[in-house]
Predict the structure of Zinc metallochaperone AztD.
Amino acid sequence: MGLSLTRNRLLAAVAATVLFVAPGAMADDHETMEAWRLFVADHTQPVVRAIDFASGKELGRYDLKGYAALTASASGQIVFAAQTEADLIHAIKTGINFSDHGEHRDLDVSDPALLPITLKGKRPGHVVPHDDHVILFYDRGDKAEIVDEADILEGKAEKRTVDTIKPHHGVAVTMGRYILVSVPNTEIETKPDELPPRVGLRVVDEKGEQVGDLAKCTDLHGEATSARLVALGCKEGVLIARPGGVDGPKLEMLRYPADFPKAYTGTLLGGKAMQFFLGNYGEDKVVLIDPDSEQPYRLVELPTRRVDFVLDPATPRSAYILTEDGDIHVLDVIKGEITRKAKVTEPYSKDGHWRDPRPRLAVADGQIAITDPRHSLVRVIDAKTLNETRTIAVEGQPFSIVAVGGSGASH
């Protein structure tokens, strides 16, 4: 199929995943419980709502200082609300807490809450969760910050600062004791309201010292982690960082094939149960990427421009892509092709301002949650049938959405 996600390797990974998420042998005092919550930010109003996915009941409303983009922490215990125009990030406790006990995992459910801590910096951009911490990048500052999730839950923030050279719209990602940091163009002059373009990526150690040479990556944008690899989108191709030895991570540019149409990747998602990446390729195509294949790219054309896309964490071979005609498409990442589609919303054109209210996707409990800001709804679509099963009314213009939850043992 062009991916060294060879069919056998992928199917083996899927089988392993199914075995992992299936209920394990539990002691007699364990009962299985399931809980899912949606966190929805309004497009215009500075507010985030916590919603019980099963009942549609609003569990909490949190007033912020500005429009928020939402990101869940790696554990799902925190949702970060980055308010670019207000220069701060709020942290919302989801009330969903899993603890691993080998043969099973426990699930503790509590009330969601706005945590007392606020993280401040000039124009927060990318929020990148990784393991037990999160990396915050401030576009108008000259720093990124690494903060432990446990500290935030305790209402404190002991920060480790990373120098980003000068203000730019960039990103930082941890890899073991090293940090991957975008590099701005320092040789050009910019207007006061402009930020310089990104020209590459550097690796720094725990002392903040650069390790190795700068890797070229023009207009670096978009990052994702899959297994132990990190991928970053560039105009030349997708830059892959692999864990290394004493010399730090190894960087490799996967150049776009010569026969690809002219475009590039600026948004990336990383597979969790399988090692692969899914990225956009321009506005009306997506690309599957397997860094270990001799032919790492598989291009998939869409009928119209992409509005949003998301991977299904519980069904590793499925990704869902919403296009501007209002159709949801199921992409089989093993076959590398669209297998099903259905109409789920009215058309939402990509013309107009990039920040215009358009639907966003999340996956919860085998269902796709789609914000529909035009109708003040979250539409719930069955992932198997692609039929709408219900709607959840949400005041205002529901926009950014994050789903957190799963099943576990309750004592």
User: Anything to note?
Assistant: Residues 7-410 form a domain with the Methylamine Dehydrogenase; Chain H fold (CATH 2.130.10.10).
